[in-house]
Batch of 4 targets.
Target 1
Amino acid sequence: MVGQIVGYQTAYEIWQALERSYAANSRSRLIELLTELQSLKNDGIYADEYVFKKKTIAYKLASIGDPISNADQLIYLFQGLGPKYNTFVIILEARPEQPSIEEVHSLLLTYDARLQRQNSSEQLSLPQAHLASLPTPKEQQHPNSFNFKPQNQKPNFT
């Protein structure tokens, strides 16, 4: 910091130099945080972690003097959700009153858990359906079972 004020004579000149220096840093930090907020996607991370990251960026923006409204936070949050959350987003956007970020966070966790349960039950049902179509070991071991026909033999009806 001393290097930034060398050569200035008055407190006013020093203050102006520091203000210019930190203003440039603040502006670049603002752009960096806004870009991060806009580009953060829910790809491959749980909803809880996703919302936490979005909220952390919003807190950082507030700490540098550029807070984001609840409405804008929701826009950024919804923007980063994937297509599997379209129904969730449409329902919340259709509400007459705008939900809080905390309410959306809670609902998103519930919705995400529901999607995970459905996906795991679908994955279980496919192998189960396949197993149901396979012959049982009993049918495979007994050649005299109902469906057994010896090859190259004609039935004897005498």
Target 2
Amino acid sequence: TLASAAAGQSAGSEPAGPGEEAGAGQQCPGPARLARLPLARVKALVKADPDVTLASQEAVFVLARATELFVETIAKDAYVYAQQGKRKTLQRKDLDNAIEAIDEFAFLEGKFLLGFSWFQYFL
């Protein structure tokens, strides 16, 4: 399943469902959630779209995981620009530089709204 693929489990192991501990029964350094974003909030955002009538738990999980991977990727790329400025804290200009320099983020050019925070939806 998608959940087991996201967790990196082999085909012979029992897949963990969304929100369950990955590798339960195996030796792990600690409990690990497959998705770090709150799935209820992700589902609420999906349902806020008037074109969406139903969203399965698996679809919500895949959207949450894809969002996490996207945020991780853009943050790592933006951090390079923060380091060039001898900073450890990401600033808006670091994200803007990453978006401008990296082809994969071209779809975001000119899309950021001033004062808009995506994180307000996850509080």
Target 3
Amino acid sequence: MAKPIVLDQEWIERITTQVNGLEYGSVLITVHDGRVVQIDRTERKRFETSAKQNQNAKEQAGTQASAAGDKLKAIN
């Protein structure tokens, strides 16, 4: 049977610190024998591109597909 997890104020603060300010990502809490033993934080960064850069990338992909002897075709 699973043991109830007991969190003291120190662990609550640690978890809160890891979650605060996280825009994209995850916080993984590892529990052994009903006790928190580890906190892993994975943060993702997302970078927006301008519409012009997106258009240039699509045009380059189409040019590369034509150069490959029409074996590859760009999907819009």
Target 4
Amino acid sequence: MKDESESSEYVAIYEDKDGDWMLVGDIPWLMFIETCKRLRIKKRSDGTGSGLRANDTTNKERGLSMH
């Protein structure tokens, strides 16, 4: 069965306190609300250049390019 998040044309990302862009849902909710500075919804095809951290293996599993 295909993961619903993979079939979406859009992906939600957020900027943390350190200025790094991460995928929403990668960390527990309480940690997220303490560290999130801003949210963005981007087209999955615009994943390149999004600034997502390269050491986040979840991003690789979801098919996002990280630069």
